[in-house]
Amino acid sequence: TAMQDNNGAYSSLHLHYSPTAFDSIGLYTERNWDMDAHFTGLQYNRLVRRWNAPQSQGNLYLKLGAGIADPFDGRGQRGAGFAAVSADWETRRVFVSWDTRARDFGIDQSVSHAARVGFAPYVAEFGEFHTWAMLQVENHPEADNPVQVTPLLRFFQGPILLEAGYTLEEDRFLLNWMYRF
Known about the structure:
Elements: E1 2-6, E2 10-17, E3 23-32, E4 37-52, E5 57-71, E6 78-90, E7 94-104, E8 109-119, E9 130-139, E10 147-157, E11 160-167, E12 172-179
């Protein structure tokens, strides 16, 4: 899978391989403007639990990363890492998620939280074009605007997913994409 996130606070690229249905490992790189550093390393993801119901599915994930951070001011590379826990639950019409991420980039540490709620205006069949309207609320306690709201649209079909939105408090665009091989 190849994933890229761009939201104004950071841009990241994650290329990973899933050797099992529960595990993935791969390269993760993040250019973080809030922390004034560029992180490069490995990320491991674990599907801790999946709940399948007749009309819904829920997931709980653990994400761990280790590598090096290169500060923008040239102070030299440092050991760095992050840990995240995320959960989601969805039906064919409703989506809810939560993500908590702690970063230690050697020169700066942060904890952030993000929640999403989404609604599909129509139910598409498997393999057809899907559209979701979503609202993302983020909390970055150390930021000038600690609570940020981003309305966004998610589109996907087959292996391709695209998200586009606009963060009101920061006056910035969000653009994320994913491709599953």
